[in-house]
């Protein structure tokens, strides 16, 4: 299980057809978090970027969802083209066909999506947005939404801290 690094989450996720379907949202974010970001060998096959090997039971155990909820969520994601499943012998590979569109981490310096997502406005506007989320949004969410919401906030905070550190380093270099 991948536990290091980060993924991008576009704010357009709020407009996504499955956003209010908690199990599908949780499974989608789980798949993005667990997908390979580079090729790796698994037993006798190569698992490519944007693919992962997981059973329904593993996904259910990792997310706290029922097996039926995971199955339905994957059916939703397959029906709308976000994922595809292919069997290779006894192994089922789940792939995210547009993974590079969602997670093009290889071109961090030139990625317009990353720039737009990470530099979403002034600090004042960010503070107002966080204040608004704290005051109203969290109380209306289900427990699964709440955990995804908290995870997204934590990830955003980490990105903000990394950007601040990079800007400080650049400023120090410019002054030297």
List the helices and strands and how they pair.
Blueprint: H1 22-34, E1 40-42, E2 45-47, E3 51-53, H2 56-63, H3 67-79, E4 84-88, E5 91-95, H4 99-102, H5 112-118, H6 123-137, H7 143-175
Helix pairs in contact: 1-3, 2-3
Plain-language structure description:
The protein has 176 residues and is mostly helical. The chain folds into two domains: 11-100, Winged helix-like DNA-binding domain superfamily/Winged helix DNA-binding domain (Arc Repressor Mutant, subunit A), CATH 1.10.10; 119-175, no CATH class. The chain is 53% helix and 11% strand. A hairpin with a 2-residue loop joins strand 1 (40-42) and strand 2. Helix 1 crosses helix 3 (67-79) and helix 2 (56-63) packs across helix 3 (67-79). The longest helix is centred in the C-terminal third of the chain and has 33 residues, at 143-175. The N and C termini lie far apart (42 Å).
What Rg, in angstroms, do the CA atoms define? 18 Å
Distance between the termini: 42 Å
User: How much helix, percentage-wise, in residues?
Assistant: 40-55%
CATH architectural designation of the largest domain: Orthogonal Bundle
Spatial strand arrangement across the major sheet: 3-5-4
What general form does the structure show?
globular
CATH topology tier name of the largest domain: Arc Repressor Mutant, subunit A
Task: List its salient traits.
2 domains, 7 helices, two-stranded antiparallel ribbon, mainly alpha, Arc Repressor Mutant, subunit A, three-stranded antiparallel beta sheet, about 180 residues
């Amino acid at each position: 299980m991948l536990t290091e690094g980060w993924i991008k989450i576009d704010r357009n996720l709020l407009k996504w057809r499955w956003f209010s379907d908690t199990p599908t949202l949780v499974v989608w974010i789980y798949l993005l978090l667990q997908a390979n970001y580079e090729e790796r060998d698994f037993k006798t096959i190569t698992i490519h970027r944007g693919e992962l090997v997981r059973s329904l039971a593993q996904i259910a155990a990792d997310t706290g969802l029922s097996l039926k909820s995971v199955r339905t969520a994957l059916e939703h994601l397959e029906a709308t083209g976000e994922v595809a499943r292919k069997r290779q012998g006894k192994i089922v590979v789940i792939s995210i066909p547009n993974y590079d569109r969602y997670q093009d981490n290889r071109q961090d310096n030139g990625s317009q999506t990353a720039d737009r997502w990470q530099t979403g406005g002034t600090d004042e506007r960010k503070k107002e947005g966080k204040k608004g989320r704290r005051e109203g949004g969290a109380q209306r969410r289900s427990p699964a939404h709440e955990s995804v919401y908290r995870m997204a906030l934590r990830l955003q905070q980490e990105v903000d801290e990394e950007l601040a550190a990079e800007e400080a380093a650049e400023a120090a270099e410019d002054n030297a």
